[in-house]
Amino acid sequence: DSGVTQTPKHLITATGQRVTLRCSPRSGDLSVYWYQQSLDQGLQFLIQYYNGEERAKGNILERFSAQQFPDLHSELNLSSLELGDSALYFCASSVAPDYEQYFGPGTRLTVT
Amino acid sequence: AQSVTQPDIHITVSEGASLELRCNYSYGATPYLFWYVQSPGQGLQLLLKYFSGDTLVQGIKGFEAEFKRSQSSFNLRKPSVHWSDAAEYFCDEQGAQKLVFGQGTRLTINP
Question: Fewer CB atoms < 10 Å away: N or C end of chain A?
């Protein structure tokens, strides 16, 4: 158990819908990361927050947005969902940027 | 652009044999380098990390990795693999607000 929690574990929704994925970092970690993992794209870094502020951006689509709240939990919002958005979405946390990351168990999103 | 290359998509070794998984990074300054392992259906778990200092780093589960600046490499090694090592392995480079994971190497263990 890494100490990072993600909810929900599974999510099935239809194209065009909007969903919110939630992540609680390890106690004491200030940095949160979001990743998308699919069979064809592999592990893709989406976005990083540090103490509430966006710090780094990867291959995140404009339809996707995220934020980190004052209690340090984070949410990833995915809108106008497409079939190709079906993937595992991982959250990770670290004590500070560039330190080792601890990954949550992931949320499996299926878009039908 | 910053990139991490894991040249081997899939490797098969026999149980008890030695293992080396290759990783090449591209960032010019002193990189922060990591190896992670992902078992089926699980999140990634840190095996080891390199920030500075001794270029040979030890990790969990008997793994080690050697940082070679001249070759821009950070290869992962294990002297004798166990069936439980079957998993996907990711090399990661961080620095200057960039995070780059390699595409992963899937390790299969033959009994």
Answer: N
